[in-house]
Amino acid sequence: MMKSLCILIFLFCTSVVMAQKQFGLKFNFVTNNGTIASNVRVKFFKDIADDVVVVKELRANHKGILNFKLADNYFDETDSVFIQAFFEDPKIYYLNYEGKFSKKQFPLNKTIVFESMAPVSLDEIDDSIPHPPTLPKRSK
User: Fold this and answer.
1) Mean pLDDT over all residues of the chain?
2) For the whole model, what pTM was predicted?
3) What CA–CA distances, in Å, run from 104 to 42, 65, 66?
4) Which of 118, 99, 101 is nearest to 32 (CA)?
5) Is 140 helix (H, G, I), strand (E, B) or coil?
6) Bridge partner list, 69
7) pLDDT confidence of residue 95
């Protein structure tokens, strides 16, 4: 009798855990040059009482893929999660990615393209700064 009661309780607990809603997420990270963006850092945020809290921080694999299942506690009161992704390359500066997704958009399978931004050259900085006014030359 006791053994069957323990098995019944175990099955009940297992079914409750399995019944929790999971939200599938798959990101493919690439650059605008068409190369794989490997080891991208991804942070998950949610709003709690007008404060933004980091829920989880993950890294994509060397192939630029992140597979993850989000639980209900990743989402805020509006059933949304805010995602920020960072790709670092010592040679080129890439803009970060930011997105807000609702539960209705899951399962989510998205390719994220990181846009490169050419570093500003000294000549471009020189051209953007207005030169001081000069006085006209006097004729003798």
Assistant:
1) 76
2) 0.64
3) 21, 22, 20
4) 118
5) coil
6) 24
7) 84
Taking the CA atoms of residue 90, residue 91, residue 96 and residue 97 in that order, the dihedral angle to the nearest 10 degrees is: -110
Count of alpha carbons within 13 Å of 100, Cβ hemisphere only?
A: 7
Instruction: State the pLDDT at residue 52.
Output: 76
Looking at the DSSP assignment, which residues form a beta bridge with residue 86? Answer: 41
For residue 80, the Cα-to-chain-centroid distance in whole angstroms is 14
What are the structure tokens assigned to 59, written together? 């890294």
Per-residue buried b or exposed e for 101-133, using 16+ beta carbons within 10 Å of the residue's own CB: beeeebebeeebebeeeeeeeeeeeeeeeeeee
Chain segment 79-125, per-residue pLDDT in tens: 888 889 988 888 888 888 888 888 777 777 888 898 887 665 556 55
Residues 46 and 104: their CA atoms lie apart, in Å, by 16
Q: Which two tokens stand for residue 11?
A: 């099955």
Retrieve residue 20's tokens. 């929790």
- Residue ranges with strand state E in 71-129: 80-86, 93-94, 97-102, 108-114, 116-117
Query: Can you tell me the mean pLDDT for 44-53?
Result: 79
Q: Note the residue count of the chain.
A: 140
